[in-house]
Amino acid sequence: MAAPAHSTTHIDPAGFIELRDAEFLMDASEKPPTEKTGWVAQTLPDKWVSNHARHDGSGWYRFRVDLDAAPHELYAIYLPRLGLNAEVYLGAYKLGSGGSFDEPVARHWNRPLLFIIPPGLLQPGQNELFVRLRGHAYTQPYLFPIFLGSEVELRHAFERLFFRNVTINQTTSLIIVTIGLFMLNLWWRRRQETAYGLFGVSALVWAAQSTNLFMVEIPWSTAIWETLVNASFQVFSALLLISLLRFVGVDLPRFNRTLWLMMIISPLSLLLVPADFFLQLTTLWHLCTVIAALMTLVILLREGFLRSNPDARTLVAAMSIIVLFATHDWMMHSQHHLLFWLQPLLQNDIYMLHFAAPVLFFMIGMAMTSRYVRVLNEFELLNTELEQRVREKHAQLEVSFMRMREMEREKATREERERIHSDLHDDVGAKLLSLVYRAGSPENADLARSALQDLRDVVSRTLDDTFDLEDVLADWRNESEQRLRDAAIDLDWRQDGTVSGLKLTQPQALNIGRILREGLSNVIRHAKASTVRLTVSVKSDGLHIRLEDDGVGELRERPCMSGRGLLNMQNRAKKLGAVLRHYSVDPHGFGVELHLPM
Protein backbone atom coordinates (compact mmCIF):
# COMPACT_ATOMS: atom_id res chain seq x y z
CA MET A 1 0.00 0.00 0.00
CA ALA A 2 1.32 3.42 -0.92
CA ALA A 3 1.94 6.04 1.68
CA PRO A 4 -1.12 8.14 2.44
CA ALA A 5 -1.38 11.51 0.74
CA HIS A 6 -2.06 14.60 2.79
CA SER A 7 -3.54 17.92 1.73
CA THR A 8 -2.22 21.19 3.01
CA THR A 9 -3.59 22.42 6.31
CA HIS A 10 -3.43 26.06 5.23
CA ILE A 11 -6.72 27.86 4.52
CA ASP A 12 -6.05 30.45 1.83
CA PRO A 13 -7.53 33.99 1.91
CA ALA A 14 -10.33 32.85 -0.35
CA GLY A 15 -11.68 30.79 2.54
CA PHE A 16 -11.18 27.27 1.15
CA ILE A 17 -8.51 24.68 0.36
CA GLU A 18 -8.10 22.66 -2.83
CA LEU A 19 -7.71 18.90 -2.36
CA ARG A 20 -5.64 17.36 -5.16
CA ASP A 21 -3.71 14.55 -3.46
CA ALA A 22 -5.71 11.48 -2.58
CA GLU A 23 -5.65 7.70 -2.31
CA PHE A 24 -7.75 5.61 -4.71
CA LEU A 25 -9.32 2.16 -4.40
CA MET A 26 -11.54 0.50 -7.02
CA ASP A 27 -14.19 -1.06 -4.79
CA ALA A 28 -17.95 -1.59 -4.95
CA SER A 29 -18.53 -1.10 -1.21
CA GLU A 30 -21.42 1.16 -0.26
CA LYS A 31 -19.56 2.39 2.84
CA PRO A 32 -16.01 3.75 3.05
CA PRO A 33 -13.67 0.70 2.86
CA THR A 34 -11.39 1.95 5.61
CA GLU A 35 -10.17 -1.51 6.52
CA LYS A 36 -9.33 -2.65 3.02
CA THR A 37 -5.89 -2.63 1.50
CA GLY A 38 -4.89 -1.74 -2.03
CA TRP A 39 -5.18 2.00 -1.77
CA VAL A 40 -2.85 3.80 -4.21
CA ALA A 41 -1.79 7.42 -4.35
CA GLN A 42 -3.70 9.43 -6.94
CA THR A 43 -3.40 13.06 -7.96
CA LEU A 44 -6.47 14.84 -9.28
CA PRO A 45 -7.74 15.27 -11.89
CA ASP A 46 -8.11 11.54 -12.26
CA LYS A 47 -9.51 10.25 -15.57
CA TRP A 48 -10.30 6.56 -15.32
CA VAL A 49 -9.89 5.81 -19.01
CA SER A 50 -6.26 6.90 -18.82
CA ASN A 51 -5.29 5.95 -15.26
CA HIS A 52 -7.17 2.77 -14.42
CA ALA A 53 -7.64 -0.58 -16.09
CA ARG A 54 -11.35 -0.53 -15.38
CA HIS A 55 -13.68 2.39 -15.83
CA ASP A 56 -16.92 0.67 -14.89
CA GLY A 57 -18.45 0.40 -11.42
CA SER A 58 -17.48 2.35 -8.28
CA GLY A 59 -14.23 3.64 -6.86
CA TRP A 60 -13.24 5.39 -3.62
CA TYR A 61 -11.04 8.42 -3.02
CA ARG A 62 -9.61 9.08 0.46
CA PHE A 63 -8.33 12.50 1.51
CA ARG A 64 -6.54 13.15 4.83
CA VAL A 65 -7.03 16.73 5.98
CA ASP A 66 -5.11 18.10 8.97
CA LEU A 67 -6.66 21.09 10.73
CA ASP A 68 -4.99 23.17 13.43
CA ALA A 69 -8.36 24.06 14.91
CA ALA A 70 -12.02 23.35 14.37
CA PRO A 71 -13.67 25.93 12.05
CA HIS A 72 -15.98 28.49 13.62
CA GLU A 73 -18.12 28.94 10.50
CA LEU A 74 -20.15 26.58 8.36
CA TYR A 75 -17.99 24.49 6.02
CA ALA A 76 -18.85 22.60 2.83
CA ILE A 77 -17.39 20.17 0.31
CA TYR A 78 -17.52 21.35 -3.33
CA LEU A 79 -17.08 18.96 -6.29
CA PRO A 80 -16.94 21.13 -9.46
CA ARG A 81 -16.36 18.38 -12.03
CA LEU A 82 -17.06 14.68 -11.79
CA GLY A 83 -18.43 11.85 -13.81
CA LEU A 84 -20.80 10.12 -13.46
CA ASN A 85 -22.13 10.39 -9.88
CA ALA A 86 -20.65 10.85 -6.40
CA GLU A 87 -21.38 10.78 -2.70
CA VAL A 88 -19.18 12.15 0.10
CA TYR A 89 -18.37 10.87 3.61
CA LEU A 90 -16.54 12.57 6.42
CA GLY A 91 -15.26 9.57 8.32
CA ALA A 92 -18.25 7.28 8.59
CA TYR A 93 -20.74 10.15 8.34
CA LYS A 94 -22.44 10.55 4.95
CA LEU A 95 -22.47 14.23 3.98
CA GLY A 96 -24.55 13.78 0.85
CA SER A 97 -25.13 11.95 -2.42
CA GLY A 98 -25.81 12.94 -6.02
CA GLY A 99 -28.51 10.31 -6.39
CA SER A 100 -28.89 6.72 -7.48
CA PHE A 101 -25.76 4.56 -7.89
CA ASP A 102 -27.86 1.79 -9.45
CA GLU A 103 -29.31 1.82 -12.97
CA PRO A 104 -30.36 4.21 -14.17
CA VAL A 105 -27.43 6.00 -12.54
CA ALA A 106 -27.91 9.64 -11.58
CA ARG A 107 -25.96 11.92 -13.89
CA HIS A 108 -23.76 14.78 -12.65
CA TRP A 109 -21.13 14.77 -15.37
CA ASN A 110 -21.96 18.39 -16.28
CA ARG A 111 -23.21 19.77 -12.98
CA PRO A 112 -21.34 20.47 -9.72
CA LEU A 113 -22.16 19.08 -6.28
CA LEU A 114 -22.08 20.92 -2.96
CA PHE A 115 -22.49 19.20 0.45
CA ILE A 116 -22.77 21.00 3.79
CA ILE A 117 -20.59 19.76 6.69
CA PRO A 118 -22.59 19.88 9.93
CA PRO A 119 -20.97 22.03 12.67
CA GLY A 120 -18.65 20.13 14.98
CA LEU A 121 -17.99 17.31 12.55
CA LEU A 122 -14.57 18.65 11.51
CA GLN A 123 -12.09 18.22 14.38
CA PRO A 124 -8.60 19.58 15.02
CA GLY A 125 -6.00 17.18 13.76
CA GLN A 126 -6.49 14.61 11.02
CA ASN A 127 -9.87 14.19 9.30
CA GLU A 128 -10.57 11.52 6.70
CA LEU A 129 -12.75 12.53 3.75
CA PHE A 130 -14.10 9.87 1.37
CA VAL A 131 -15.57 10.41 -2.11
CA ARG A 132 -17.34 7.52 -3.78
CA LEU A 133 -17.40 7.89 -7.58
CA ARG A 134 -19.71 5.92 -9.89
CA GLY A 135 -18.55 5.32 -13.45
CA HIS A 136 -19.85 3.37 -16.43
CA ALA A 137 -18.24 1.60 -19.38
CA TYR A 138 -20.19 3.84 -21.81
CA THR A 139 -18.90 7.03 -20.16
CA GLN A 140 -15.58 8.60 -19.25
CA PRO A 141 -15.48 8.68 -15.40
CA TYR A 142 -13.31 11.36 -13.84
CA LEU A 143 -12.86 13.42 -10.72
CA PHE A 144 -11.29 16.87 -10.69
CA PRO A 145 -9.83 18.54 -7.57
CA ILE A 146 -12.40 19.13 -4.83
CA PHE A 147 -12.63 22.03 -2.39
CA LEU A 148 -13.11 22.22 1.37
CA GLY A 149 -13.88 25.53 2.99
CA SER A 150 -16.38 28.22 3.86
CA GLU A 151 -19.87 27.34 2.72
CA VAL A 152 -20.49 30.96 1.69
CA GLU A 153 -17.44 31.12 -0.57
CA LEU A 154 -17.95 27.69 -2.06
CA ARG A 155 -21.65 28.29 -2.68
CA HIS A 156 -20.77 31.35 -4.78
CA ALA A 157 -18.46 29.19 -6.90
CA PHE A 158 -21.07 26.42 -7.06
CA GLU A 159 -23.83 28.79 -8.21
CA ARG A 160 -21.63 30.38 -10.87
CA LEU A 161 -20.72 26.99 -12.33
CA PHE A 162 -24.28 25.70 -12.00
CA PHE A 163 -25.54 28.73 -13.90
CA ARG A 164 -22.99 28.21 -16.68
CA ASN A 165 -23.40 24.46 -17.04
CA VAL A 166 -27.07 23.96 -16.22
CA THR A 167 -29.17 27.13 -16.30
CA ILE A 168 -27.71 28.45 -19.53
CA ASN A 169 -28.16 25.10 -21.24
CA GLN A 170 -31.73 24.78 -20.03
CA THR A 171 -32.49 28.25 -21.38
CA THR A 172 -30.77 27.68 -24.70
CA SER A 173 -32.60 24.38 -25.13
CA LEU A 174 -35.92 26.20 -24.79
CA ILE A 175 -34.76 28.80 -27.30
CA ILE A 176 -33.73 26.10 -29.77
CA VAL A 177 -37.06 24.30 -29.31
CA THR A 178 -38.81 27.57 -30.12
CA ILE A 179 -36.69 28.05 -33.24
CA GLY A 180 -37.36 24.47 -34.30
CA LEU A 181 -41.13 24.79 -33.86
CA PHE A 182 -41.10 28.11 -35.69
CA MET A 183 -39.25 26.62 -38.66
CA LEU A 184 -41.61 23.64 -38.71
CA ASN A 185 -44.50 26.10 -38.78
CA LEU A 186 -42.97 27.80 -41.83
CA TRP A 187 -42.51 24.43 -43.48
CA TRP A 188 -46.09 23.45 -42.68
CA ARG A 189 -47.28 26.55 -44.52
CA ARG A 190 -45.04 25.83 -47.52
CA ARG A 191 -44.58 22.06 -47.74
CA GLN A 192 -42.36 22.32 -50.80
CA GLU A 193 -39.70 24.10 -48.70
CA THR A 194 -38.31 20.88 -47.20
CA ALA A 195 -35.16 22.68 -46.02
CA TYR A 196 -37.25 24.46 -43.37
CA GLY A 197 -38.78 21.20 -42.15
CA LEU A 198 -35.44 19.40 -41.93
CA PHE A 199 -33.87 22.34 -40.12
CA GLY A 200 -36.77 22.45 -37.65
CA VAL A 201 -36.44 18.72 -36.92
CA SER A 202 -32.66 19.06 -36.51
CA ALA A 203 -33.22 21.83 -33.95
CA LEU A 204 -35.61 19.63 -31.96
CA VAL A 205 -33.15 16.72 -32.09
CA TRP A 206 -30.39 18.99 -30.77
CA ALA A 207 -32.67 20.28 -28.01
CA ALA A 208 -33.55 16.70 -27.02
CA GLN A 209 -29.87 15.74 -27.02
CA SER A 210 -29.05 18.81 -24.91
CA THR A 211 -31.09 17.43 -22.03
CA ASN A 212 -28.03 15.25 -21.40
CA LEU A 213 -26.33 18.41 -20.14
CA PHE A 214 -28.69 18.94 -17.22
CA MET A 215 -30.85 15.85 -16.63
CA VAL A 216 -30.03 13.93 -13.44
CA GLU A 217 -32.67 11.21 -13.45
CA ILE A 218 -32.96 9.51 -16.84
CA PRO A 219 -35.74 7.15 -18.03
CA TRP A 220 -33.47 4.38 -19.36
CA SER A 221 -30.27 2.63 -18.44
CA THR A 222 -26.98 4.46 -18.86
CA ALA A 223 -26.04 2.27 -21.84
CA ILE A 224 -29.25 3.06 -23.74
CA TRP A 225 -29.07 6.73 -22.80
CA GLU A 226 -25.45 7.12 -23.91
CA THR A 227 -26.22 5.31 -27.16
CA LEU A 228 -29.10 7.67 -27.93
CA VAL A 229 -27.14 10.76 -26.92
CA ASN A 230 -24.10 9.89 -29.02
CA ALA A 231 -26.14 8.73 -32.04
CA SER A 232 -28.21 11.90 -31.92
CA PHE A 233 -25.12 13.86 -33.01
CA GLN A 234 -25.17 12.02 -36.34
CA VAL A 235 -28.94 12.39 -36.67
CA PHE A 236 -28.82 16.08 -35.89
CA SER A 237 -25.83 16.71 -38.16
CA ALA A 238 -27.29 14.82 -41.13
CA LEU A 239 -30.60 16.69 -40.90
CA LEU A 240 -28.87 20.04 -40.50
CA LEU A 241 -26.40 19.57 -43.35
CA ILE A 242 -29.03 18.27 -45.77
CA SER A 243 -31.30 21.20 -44.90
CA LEU A 244 -28.50 23.72 -45.52
CA LEU A 245 -27.65 22.22 -48.91
CA ARG A 246 -31.30 22.23 -49.93
CA PHE A 247 -31.67 25.78 -48.72
CA VAL A 248 -28.88 27.03 -51.00
CA GLY A 249 -30.15 24.89 -53.89
CA VAL A 250 -27.28 22.38 -54.06
CA ASP A 251 -28.20 18.84 -55.07
CA LEU A 252 -25.49 16.27 -54.28
CA PRO A 253 -27.23 12.87 -54.36
CA ARG A 254 -24.21 10.84 -53.23
CA PHE A 255 -23.37 13.13 -50.36
CA ASN A 256 -27.01 13.27 -49.29
CA ARG A 257 -27.29 9.47 -49.38
CA THR A 258 -24.16 9.22 -47.26
CA LEU A 259 -25.66 11.55 -44.67
CA TRP A 260 -28.93 9.59 -44.59
CA LEU A 261 -27.01 6.33 -44.18
CA MET A 262 -24.90 7.84 -41.39
CA MET A 263 -28.09 8.87 -39.60
CA ILE A 264 -29.43 5.30 -39.78
CA ILE A 265 -26.29 3.22 -39.30
CA SER A 266 -24.85 5.19 -36.36
CA PRO A 267 -27.59 4.28 -33.82
CA LEU A 268 -27.66 0.65 -34.98
CA SER A 269 -23.91 0.21 -34.72
CA LEU A 270 -23.76 1.83 -31.27
CA LEU A 271 -26.52 -0.45 -30.04
CA LEU A 272 -24.69 -3.56 -31.25
CA VAL A 273 -21.06 -2.73 -30.39
CA PRO A 274 -19.53 -4.39 -27.26
CA ALA A 275 -19.14 -2.08 -24.27
CA ASP A 276 -15.31 -2.21 -24.44
CA PHE A 277 -15.39 -0.59 -27.89
CA PHE A 278 -18.29 1.81 -27.41
CA LEU A 279 -16.20 4.93 -26.73
CA GLN A 280 -13.86 4.19 -29.63
CA LEU A 281 -16.80 3.79 -32.01
CA THR A 282 -18.39 7.05 -30.83
CA THR A 283 -15.08 8.77 -31.48
CA LEU A 284 -15.04 7.48 -35.07
CA TRP A 285 -18.66 8.43 -35.69
CA HIS A 286 -18.09 11.93 -34.32
CA LEU A 287 -15.05 12.24 -36.59
CA CYS A 288 -17.24 11.33 -39.58
CA THR A 289 -19.67 14.03 -38.48
CA VAL A 290 -16.90 16.64 -38.31
CA ILE A 291 -15.66 15.63 -41.77
CA ALA A 292 -19.20 15.91 -43.19
CA ALA A 293 -19.55 19.37 -41.63
CA LEU A 294 -16.20 20.41 -43.11
CA MET A 295 -17.26 19.19 -46.57
CA THR A 296 -20.49 21.16 -46.26
CA LEU A 297 -18.50 24.26 -45.36
CA VAL A 298 -16.36 23.80 -48.49
CA ILE A 299 -19.52 23.44 -50.59
CA LEU A 300 -20.99 26.61 -49.10
CA LEU A 301 -17.75 28.50 -49.76
CA ARG A 302 -17.79 27.35 -53.37
CA GLU A 303 -21.43 28.24 -53.87
CA GLY A 304 -21.19 31.54 -52.05
CA PHE A 305 -18.02 33.01 -53.50
CA LEU A 306 -17.41 31.19 -56.78
CA ARG A 307 -21.04 30.98 -57.88
CA SER A 308 -22.28 34.15 -56.14
CA ASN A 309 -25.01 32.48 -54.11
CA PRO A 310 -26.08 35.04 -51.46
CA ASP A 311 -27.78 32.45 -49.25
CA ALA A 312 -24.62 30.33 -49.19
CA ARG A 313 -22.50 33.34 -48.23
CA THR A 314 -24.86 34.05 -45.35
CA LEU A 315 -24.40 30.53 -43.96
CA VAL A 316 -20.60 30.40 -44.27
CA ALA A 317 -19.97 32.19 -40.94
CA ALA A 318 -22.34 29.93 -38.99
CA MET A 319 -20.95 26.80 -40.63
CA SER A 320 -17.38 27.89 -39.88
CA ILE A 321 -18.21 28.21 -36.18
CA ILE A 322 -19.87 24.79 -36.23
CA VAL A 323 -16.80 23.17 -37.79
CA LEU A 324 -14.41 24.93 -35.40
CA PHE A 325 -16.31 24.08 -32.20
CA ALA A 326 -17.20 20.57 -33.39
CA THR A 327 -13.52 19.86 -34.03
CA HIS A 328 -12.64 21.13 -30.55
CA ASP A 329 -15.33 19.01 -28.90
CA TRP A 330 -14.28 15.95 -30.89
CA MET A 331 -10.72 16.36 -29.60
CA MET A 332 -12.12 16.69 -26.07
CA HIS A 333 -14.07 13.46 -26.53
CA SER A 334 -11.26 11.48 -28.18
CA GLN A 335 -8.24 12.61 -26.15
CA HIS A 336 -8.26 9.36 -24.14
CA HIS A 337 -8.68 7.07 -27.17
CA LEU A 338 -6.79 8.50 -30.13
CA LEU A 339 -5.20 11.83 -29.31
CA PHE A 340 -3.31 11.07 -26.09
CA TRP A 341 -0.83 13.87 -26.74
CA LEU A 342 -3.66 16.42 -26.44
CA GLN A 343 -4.45 15.58 -22.83
CA PRO A 344 -2.15 18.23 -21.30
CA LEU A 345 -3.63 20.90 -23.60
CA LEU A 346 -7.25 19.95 -22.91
CA GLN A 347 -6.82 19.15 -19.21
CA ASN A 348 -9.20 21.84 -17.92
CA ASP A 349 -11.12 22.51 -21.12
CA ILE A 350 -14.89 22.23 -21.57
CA TYR A 351 -17.21 21.31 -24.44
CA MET A 352 -17.99 24.41 -26.51
CA LEU A 353 -20.52 23.54 -29.21
CA HIS A 354 -23.58 23.54 -26.98
CA PHE A 355 -22.77 27.08 -25.80
CA ALA A 356 -22.65 28.31 -29.41
CA ALA A 357 -25.69 26.27 -30.50
CA PRO A 358 -28.39 28.92 -29.85
CA VAL A 359 -26.40 31.56 -31.72
CA LEU A 360 -25.84 29.18 -34.63
CA PHE A 361 -29.47 28.14 -34.80
CA PHE A 362 -30.48 31.78 -34.59
CA MET A 363 -28.12 32.77 -37.43
CA ILE A 364 -29.27 29.96 -39.69
CA GLY A 365 -32.91 30.48 -38.72
CA MET A 366 -32.64 34.19 -39.49
CA ALA A 367 -31.12 33.44 -42.90
CA MET A 368 -33.94 31.03 -43.71
CA THR A 369 -36.61 33.33 -42.32
CA SER A 370 -35.21 36.30 -44.26
CA ARG A 371 -35.47 34.39 -47.50
CA TYR A 372 -38.94 33.17 -46.57
CA VAL A 373 -40.06 36.75 -45.93
CA ARG A 374 -38.31 37.92 -49.10
CA VAL A 375 -40.07 35.29 -51.18
CA LEU A 376 -43.37 36.09 -49.45
CA ASN A 377 -42.92 39.79 -50.24
CA GLU A 378 -42.16 38.91 -53.86
CA PHE A 379 -45.30 36.80 -54.00
CA GLU A 380 -47.34 39.63 -52.52
CA LEU A 381 -45.84 42.05 -55.04
CA LEU A 382 -46.60 39.65 -57.88
CA ASN A 383 -50.09 39.18 -56.50
CA THR A 384 -50.58 42.94 -56.36
CA GLU A 385 -49.30 43.28 -59.92
CA LEU A 386 -51.55 40.42 -60.99
CA GLU A 387 -54.56 42.05 -59.35
CA GLN A 388 -53.68 45.31 -61.11
CA ARG A 389 -53.40 43.47 -64.42
CA VAL A 390 -56.71 41.75 -63.78
CA ARG A 391 -58.32 45.12 -63.07
CA GLU A 392 -56.79 46.57 -66.23
CA LYS A 393 -57.90 43.58 -68.30
CA HIS A 394 -61.33 43.79 -66.71
CA ALA A 395 -61.54 47.45 -67.67
CA GLN A 396 -60.37 46.61 -71.18
CA LEU A 397 -62.95 43.86 -71.41
CA GLU A 398 -65.64 46.27 -70.24
CA VAL A 399 -64.57 48.76 -72.91
CA SER A 400 -64.50 45.99 -75.50
CA PHE A 401 -67.90 44.79 -74.34
CA MET A 402 -69.29 48.31 -74.57
CA ARG A 403 -67.80 48.65 -78.04
CA MET A 404 -69.33 45.35 -79.05
CA ARG A 405 -72.69 46.46 -77.70
CA GLU A 406 -72.32 49.75 -79.54
CA MET A 407 -71.39 47.93 -82.72
CA GLU A 408 -74.36 45.63 -82.29
CA ARG A 409 -76.58 48.65 -81.70
CA GLU A 410 -75.14 50.37 -84.75
CA LYS A 411 -75.63 47.22 -86.75
CA ALA A 412 -79.23 46.99 -85.60
CA THR A 413 -79.72 50.69 -86.37
CA ARG A 414 -78.14 50.28 -89.78
CA GLU A 415 -80.30 47.30 -90.56
CA GLU A 416 -83.38 49.20 -89.40
CA ARG A 417 -82.30 52.21 -91.45
CA GLU A 418 -81.78 50.04 -94.49
CA ARG A 419 -85.21 48.56 -93.98
CA ILE A 420 -86.74 52.03 -93.64
CA HIS A 421 -84.66 53.24 -96.58
CA SER A 422 -85.92 50.35 -98.65
CA ASP A 423 -89.50 51.04 -97.64
CA LEU A 424 -89.16 54.77 -98.25
CA HIS A 425 -87.33 54.20 -101.52
CA ASP A 426 -89.95 51.81 -102.74
CA ASP A 427 -92.90 53.90 -101.57
CA VAL A 428 -92.22 57.56 -100.77
CA GLY A 429 -89.16 57.76 -103.03
CA ALA A 430 -91.06 56.41 -105.97
CA LYS A 431 -93.85 58.92 -105.37
CA LEU A 432 -91.40 61.85 -105.06
CA LEU A 433 -89.66 60.74 -108.24
CA SER A 434 -93.05 60.66 -109.98
CA LEU A 435 -93.70 64.19 -108.75
CA VAL A 436 -90.37 65.31 -110.22
CA TYR A 437 -91.43 64.17 -113.67
CA ARG A 438 -95.09 65.13 -113.37
CA ALA A 439 -94.51 68.56 -111.87
CA GLY A 440 -96.30 71.26 -113.82
CA SER A 441 -93.61 73.86 -113.17
CA PRO A 442 -89.83 73.92 -112.53
CA GLU A 443 -90.48 75.14 -109.01
CA ASN A 444 -92.58 72.10 -108.15
CA ALA A 445 -90.07 69.76 -109.76
CA ASP A 446 -87.27 71.34 -107.77
CA LEU A 447 -89.26 71.05 -104.58
CA ALA A 448 -89.86 67.36 -105.21
CA ARG A 449 -86.22 66.80 -106.09
CA SER A 450 -85.08 68.61 -102.89
CA ALA A 451 -87.40 66.49 -100.77
CA LEU A 452 -86.05 63.35 -102.45
CA GLN A 453 -82.46 64.37 -101.68
CA ASP A 454 -83.33 65.13 -98.02
CA LEU A 455 -84.86 61.69 -97.78
CA ARG A 456 -81.71 60.10 -99.14
CA ASP A 457 -79.50 62.04 -96.70
CA VAL A 458 -81.54 61.07 -93.67
CA VAL A 459 -81.65 57.36 -94.37
CA SER A 460 -78.10 56.94 -95.70
CA ARG A 461 -76.01 58.79 -93.11
CA THR A 462 -75.66 57.74 -89.46
CA LEU A 463 -74.73 59.97 -86.53
CA ASP A 464 -71.39 58.26 -86.04
CA ASP A 465 -70.32 58.53 -89.68
CA THR A 466 -67.64 60.93 -90.83
CA PHE A 467 -67.23 62.00 -94.44
CA ASP A 468 -64.40 63.37 -96.50
CA LEU A 469 -65.10 67.01 -97.26
CA GLU A 470 -63.91 66.43 -100.80
CA ASP A 471 -66.58 63.75 -101.39
CA VAL A 472 -69.33 65.82 -99.77
CA LEU A 473 -68.46 68.84 -101.93
CA ALA A 474 -68.65 66.66 -105.04
CA ASP A 475 -72.16 65.51 -104.04
CA TRP A 476 -73.25 69.08 -103.35
CA ARG A 477 -71.84 70.26 -106.70
CA ASN A 478 -73.61 67.52 -108.65
CA GLU A 479 -76.91 68.22 -106.91
CA SER A 480 -76.56 71.98 -107.40
CA GLU A 481 -75.69 71.68 -111.10
CA GLN A 482 -78.69 69.41 -111.73
CA ARG A 483 -81.17 71.62 -109.91
CA LEU A 484 -79.90 74.87 -111.46
CA ARG A 485 -79.69 73.35 -114.93
CA ASP A 486 -83.33 72.29 -114.74
CA ALA A 487 -84.14 75.88 -113.74
CA ALA A 488 -82.05 77.33 -116.65
CA ILE A 489 -79.57 78.90 -114.24
CA ASP A 490 -75.80 78.71 -114.65
CA LEU A 491 -73.57 77.52 -111.75
CA ASP A 492 -70.23 79.19 -111.13
CA TRP A 493 -68.51 76.75 -108.68
CA ARG A 494 -65.37 78.04 -107.03
CA GLN A 495 -63.15 76.25 -104.54
CA ASP A 496 -60.18 77.81 -102.65
CA GLY A 497 -57.70 76.00 -100.40
CA THR A 498 -56.92 72.36 -99.89
CA VAL A 499 -59.81 70.20 -98.74
CA SER A 500 -57.97 66.88 -98.90
CA GLY A 501 -57.93 65.10 -95.52
CA LEU A 502 -60.64 67.28 -93.96
CA LYS A 503 -63.65 65.52 -92.45
CA LEU A 504 -67.26 66.43 -91.75
CA THR A 505 -69.46 64.72 -89.22
CA GLN A 506 -72.93 63.48 -90.12
CA PRO A 507 -74.70 66.46 -88.48
CA GLN A 508 -72.35 68.87 -90.24
CA ALA A 509 -72.75 67.27 -93.67
CA LEU A 510 -76.54 66.95 -93.28
CA ASN A 511 -77.22 70.48 -92.00
CA ILE A 512 -74.83 72.29 -94.35
CA GLY A 513 -76.39 70.36 -97.25
CA ARG A 514 -79.86 71.48 -96.18
CA ILE A 515 -78.69 75.09 -95.79
CA LEU A 516 -77.32 75.01 -99.36
CA ARG A 517 -80.47 73.29 -100.58
CA GLU A 518 -82.65 75.95 -98.91
CA GLY A 519 -80.51 78.70 -100.44
CA LEU A 520 -80.73 77.19 -103.94
CA SER A 521 -84.48 76.73 -103.54
CA ASN A 522 -84.75 80.45 -102.73
CA VAL A 523 -82.77 81.37 -105.85
CA ILE A 524 -84.78 79.07 -108.09
CA ARG A 525 -88.17 80.20 -106.79
CA HIS A 526 -87.73 83.92 -106.10
CA ALA A 527 -84.43 85.41 -107.34
CA LYS A 528 -85.09 85.49 -111.08
CA ALA A 529 -81.34 85.00 -111.45
CA SER A 530 -79.36 83.81 -114.43
CA THR A 531 -76.17 82.80 -112.56
CA VAL A 532 -75.33 81.43 -109.13
CA ARG A 533 -71.78 81.62 -107.77
CA LEU A 534 -71.00 79.07 -105.05
CA THR A 535 -67.59 79.58 -103.39
CA VAL A 536 -66.01 77.11 -100.94
CA SER A 537 -62.95 78.36 -99.02
CA VAL A 538 -60.84 76.56 -96.43
CA LYS A 539 -59.03 79.04 -94.20
CA SER A 540 -57.20 78.96 -90.88
CA ASP A 541 -60.38 79.83 -88.98
CA GLY A 542 -62.51 77.14 -90.63
CA LEU A 543 -64.76 76.44 -93.62
CA HIS A 544 -66.44 79.32 -95.53
CA ILE A 545 -69.27 78.73 -98.03
CA ARG A 546 -70.77 81.66 -99.97
CA LEU A 547 -73.87 81.39 -102.16
CA GLU A 548 -74.42 84.50 -104.35
CA ASP A 549 -76.85 85.18 -107.22
CA ASP A 550 -77.42 88.03 -109.70
CA GLY A 551 -81.16 88.19 -109.24
CA VAL A 552 -83.41 90.44 -107.21
CA GLY A 553 -81.29 91.93 -104.45
CA GLU A 554 -83.85 93.11 -101.88
CA LEU A 555 -84.65 90.81 -98.94
CA ARG A 556 -88.26 91.92 -98.85
CA GLU A 557 -88.68 90.76 -102.42
CA ARG A 558 -87.83 87.20 -101.34
CA PRO A 559 -90.62 85.92 -99.10
CA CYS A 560 -88.85 82.67 -98.33
CA MET A 561 -85.71 84.36 -97.12
CA SER A 562 -87.55 86.96 -95.06
CA GLY A 563 -89.74 84.33 -93.44
CA ARG A 564 -89.38 80.79 -92.29
CA GLY A 565 -86.66 79.86 -94.80
CA LEU A 566 -83.98 82.14 -93.39
CA LEU A 567 -84.96 81.21 -89.83
CA ASN A 568 -84.51 77.51 -90.64
CA MET A 569 -81.09 78.22 -92.12
CA GLN A 570 -80.11 80.22 -89.01
CA ASN A 571 -81.26 77.43 -86.68
CA ARG A 572 -79.31 74.77 -88.58
CA ALA A 573 -76.16 76.91 -88.49
CA LYS A 574 -76.59 77.49 -84.77
CA LYS A 575 -76.79 73.72 -84.13
CA LEU A 576 -73.39 73.35 -85.76
CA GLY A 577 -71.82 76.27 -83.89
CA ALA A 578 -71.52 78.06 -87.22
CA VAL A 579 -72.31 81.65 -88.23
CA LEU A 580 -74.72 82.48 -91.07
CA ARG A 581 -75.03 85.96 -92.52
CA HIS A 582 -76.84 87.36 -95.56
CA TYR A 583 -76.00 90.39 -97.63
CA SER A 584 -76.73 92.18 -100.90
CA VAL A 585 -74.49 91.76 -103.93
CA ASP A 586 -73.54 94.69 -106.18
CA PRO A 587 -74.90 95.77 -108.58
CA HIS A 588 -77.84 93.53 -107.83
CA GLY A 589 -78.28 90.14 -106.24
CA PHE A 590 -78.31 88.42 -102.88
CA GLY A 591 -75.70 86.44 -100.92
CA VAL A 592 -75.51 84.06 -97.96
CA GLU A 593 -72.24 83.11 -96.21
CA LEU A 594 -71.73 80.22 -93.77
CA HIS A 595 -68.65 80.10 -91.51
CA LEU A 596 -68.01 76.76 -89.76
CA PRO A 597 -65.03 76.66 -87.33
CA MET A 598 -62.98 73.47 -87.74
Query: What about the largest sheet?
Result: 6 strands, antiparallel
CATH architectural grouping of the largest domain: Up-down Bundle
DSSP helix fraction:
40-55%
Mean pLDDT: 85
Shape: rod-shaped
CATH topology of the largest domain: Rhopdopsin 7-helix transmembrane proteins
Round the Cα radius of gyration to an integer and report it.
Answer: 56 Å
Helix count? 13
Biggest sheet: strand arrangement: 3-2-5-11-8-9
Question: How many domains make up the 3D coordinates?
Answer: 3
Structure at a glance:
This protein is α+β, with helices and mostly antiparallel strands. It is built from 13 helices and 20 strands.
Secondary structure blueprint with pairings:
Blueprint: E1 16-19, E2 21-26, E3 40-43, E4 46-47, H1 48-51, E5 57-67, E6 75-79, E7 82-83, E8 85-90, E9 93-97, E10 113-117, E11 125-135, E12 142-143, E13 146-150, H2 151-189, H3 194-210, H4 222-247, H5 253-272, H6 278-306, H7 310-334, H8 353-438, H9 442-460, E14 466-468, H10 469-486, E15 490-496, E16 503-505, H11 506-527, E17 531-539, E18 542-549, H12 559-562, H13 564-576, E19 579-584, E20 590-596
Parallel strand pairs: 15-17
Antiparallel strand pairs: 1-13, 2-3, 2-5, 4-12, 5-11, 6-10, 6-13, 7-12, 8-9, 8-11, 14-16, 17-18, 18-20, 19-20
Helix pairs in contact: 2-3, 2-8, 3-4, 3-8, 4-5, 4-6, 5-6, 6-7, 7-8, 8-9, 9-11, 10-11, 11-13
